[in-house]
Amino acid sequence: MIVRYWQPFQEMNTVKRQLDQLFDDFAGVETAKATWTPAATLVESEDALTLHVQLPGVKVDDIDIQASREVVAISGDRTAPQLAEGETLRRNEFRYGAFRRVVSLPVAIDPKQVTADYEAGILVLTLPKAEDERNKVVKVSVAAAKPAISEATEETAAQ
Questions:
Q1: Which of left, alpha, beta for 115 (phi over 0: left; psi -120 to 50: alpha)?
Q2: What share of the chain is helix, strand, coil (3-state, %, to 5)?
Q3: Which of 58, 56, 53 is nearest to 102 (CA)?
Q4: pLDDT tens per residue across span 20-63
Q5: Which of 3, 16, 96, 124 could form a disulfide with 80 if both were Cys (CB 3.0 to 4.6 A apart)?
Q6: Which residues does 118 contact at the CB level (< 8 Å), separation at least 6?
């Protein structure tokens, strides 16, 4: 006996893909430039945050990075390749045009120390934590407990 569970989100994604295909077939290929948002991953270590952003096919010169203590903004443009004479684009699932990704950071960083590397379509930003965020250790003092007065001490004092 096979038990199947209903997966509504999977069915909605299937219907969405089918509708997208229907509209693509009916209207041709989308020609308007649309803003897209690249995928990102943020990892925290003791001294820094590391932000990985997927930007396949984007030229280094087309990437703009702005960093402040609490936010990093990455924007730019990915241009679509030109078709050769006689070629017709029948399907396009790649995203082209302007992109923008703004990432709020969980801790303050030192924006002057941010470094960026770009290889194989992955932008890697190293975001060193601000000095006041590093080694944020606070000394906690424990108050000494007051000695309890025992009944025997009170009886002795009463005599």
A1: beta
A2: 20, 30, 50
A3: 53
A4: 666 655 555 554 445 789 999 999 999 999 999 999 999 999 99
A5: 96
A6: 55, 60, 63, 124
Fold of 32-81+92-134: Immunoglobulin-like (2.60.40)
Alpha carbons 94 and 111: distance in angstroms, whole number: 32
HSE (CB half, 13 Å, CA atoms) of 128?
Answer: 9
Q: 27: left (phi > 0), else alpha (psi -120 to 50), else beta?
A: alpha
Domain residue ranges in the chain: 32-81+92-134
DSSP symbol at 96:
-
